[in-house]
Specification:
The protein has 5 helices and no strands. The radius of gyration is 37 Å and the shape is elongated. The termini are far apart. The longest helix has about 35 residues, at about 95-130. Helix 3 packs antiparallel against helix 4 (about 95-130), helix 3 (about 55-90) runs parallel beside helix 5 (about 135-165) and helix 4 (about 95-130) runs antiparallel to helix 5. By secondary structure, it is mainly α.
Length: about 170
């Protein structure tokens, strides 16, 4: 008896589901053009003005000047550091010549750090510009210029370390 009740309940549920799917033939939507399908395309608005103004030329000049001054100090000390590195090549670690060369290389690295500081300030300005979706070509140019100077200083220091012999 229980099996017959279960079969009846399942059959009644299926019939109720099928009855819910049945409908009149007039309930289907029309395939005629709707008003929005034949309307002209919407007008595209002009892009909004940037949120952030361009970096002031005076600030860019200041950072370029700081990088140039640091690079000048670097190049002024570069010759002496190269001479000391050549003199210390092959010397024992405890030698005075090697100590003098390492001090000169540390001084070069300190000057390189000043150039890197100027690049870091430019990078911060570039990050602000990118966050405001306001590219600044003058800022990008200054950033590239200082980055090239820094890369040159890095190559010089690496060459002098290679001459000294780590």
């Amino acid at each position: 008896m229980r099996a017959e009740l279960t079969k009846t309940a399942v059959l009644a549920t299926c019939l109720a589901g099928l009855a819910a799917c049945a409908g009149s033939k007039e309930a289907y939507p029309s395939l005629a053009m709707r008003p929005f399908e034949s309307a002209s395309p919407p007008q595209v608005e002009a892009p909004a003005a940037p949120i952030r103004q361009a970096t002031p030329a005076a600030r860019l000049a200041e950072l370029r000047g700081a990088a140039a001054a640091a690079h000048s100090a670097f190049t002024a000390r570069e010759g002496e550091a190269a001479r000391l590195a050549r003199a210390a090549a092959g010397q024992p670690v405890e030698s005075s010549a090697r100590a003098a060369a390492m001090i000169a290389l540390a001084d070069l690295d300190a000057q390189r750090g000043k150039t890197a500081g100027a690049l870091a300030a430019l990078d911060e300005l570039a990050a602000d510009a990118a966050g405001a979706l306001s590219p600044d070509p003058a800022l990008v140019a200054a950033q590239g210029e200082v980055a090239a100077t820094l890369a040159s200083e890095d190559r010089t220091i690496t060459q002098l370390w290679n001459v000294l012999g780590r």
